[in-house]
Amino acid sequence: MEAIEPAYGATTLLLIAAGAVALLLFLIIRVKLHAFVALVLVSLLTALAAGIPVADVPEALSYGFSNTLGSVALLVGFGVMIGRLLEITGGAQVLADTLIGRFGEKRAPLAIGVAALLFGFPIFFDAGLVVFLPIIITVARRFGGSLILYAFPTAGAFAAMHALVPPHPGPVAAAEVMGGNIGLALLVGVPVAVLSWFVGSFLVSQFIGRRVWVDVPTALFGEMNGGRDDDNGKGRGADNGGQGRDADNGGAAGAAGSGGGTATATRTVPAFGTVMGILLLPFVLISFNTVLDTLMAAGVLEEDATWARYLMLLGNTSVALLITVIVATLVLGLRNHSMADVSGIFDKALAPICVIILITGAGGMFGGVLRLSGIGDALSDSLSDLGMSLILQAFLISTILRVAQGSATVALTTTSGLIAASVADAGLSDFQISLLVIAIAAGATVLSHVNDSGFWLVSRFFEMDVKTTLKTWTVMETTLGLSAFVLALAMWTVA
Known about the structure:
single chain, 495 residues, 71% helix
């Protein structure tokens, strides 16, 4: 669906958007209305207030909802299935133990954050986050403390790589629109992403995590009390605390305590190499898509190359995760379970994600309505000539568009298009254009809030209410974006 001709000026549309956000926060935080209902209701009212024709309102509502579900539902579903298999078979514990063994217990948050940086090179934010969930939860349960200490370095790593580093679509599109060199954007983007992650995500998350307590979520992967074995309850000891449980290294389970529970059968956990292979499989497959797409965009490969298209199909995120689910079922699930047991595990893994998918889709609906109302076009017209340096102009325009309509991708592509003519007139070098890409991506990262579907994904996955998400995730995303912009600005002054 195309954007509708704005019914009002930029100022009026901004006031409508601000009022819609305020109403949404009031309904969720003060009235305690369910987030899904509140998002759909406010989306409807916003569409009417913004002047979208009544006949077009249903299509406007479904536009953002269906687009978001199309990209999120399969990723979340397959990702949770992979994550549940990793947890139930001990794979997540093996990976966590190995990482902690290499980095040390005190550096557990740093360990999983660095792992996320590596895996985040080709994998999108939401796909990476959902695959890493069991690892985050396993480490958080083992060492204690607020979940933020472990979850945010990981989520921040995926966010940094997704926003700043080609071959992710946002920075690639921005570099192409402004006539930059994608290879140089990659070389500049990687160190900036790592440094901005360390300062704006890792250090900040450790500061926030020591002041804001968030419990380890239980909806997706349950609680790991004493003698719980798996979803089928095998080997559960009786009564209070005398439950036997499998040893982490796969040895025989201990006998039940005072309640006289039964011992479990001996079973083995997968090797570290097997677990890494499962996690690397989507990494490698998705690389086919992202790298080949980048090469085609750069003219290195012909767009109609059949072999490349087949590899890109395998690298489509949903297809890659589907293949990984099948491989994980064969390699992990069938080690100690029947296929019927694995199907039961998947059923229980999928059941809790319905609310996550619906709320995330409704967040996409709200952002979609704001985009279709013409607020982006209206802002673009009024911000196209701000009379300041290009890098500051790029950051501010991207930030305002991000805050107004929620989509980081829209903020990236719109801002790069707005300043493309000025970039061409200025005769900037490829290095300077790469810095502009970072500045735009930084603005598109800050101030994630209720019109951003990613905000709701984080809120639901980590079982945080809206107020807590605003004072933790929104703050961390902002410091991450600001860190990237400061680095780009510092290099701009000497370029």
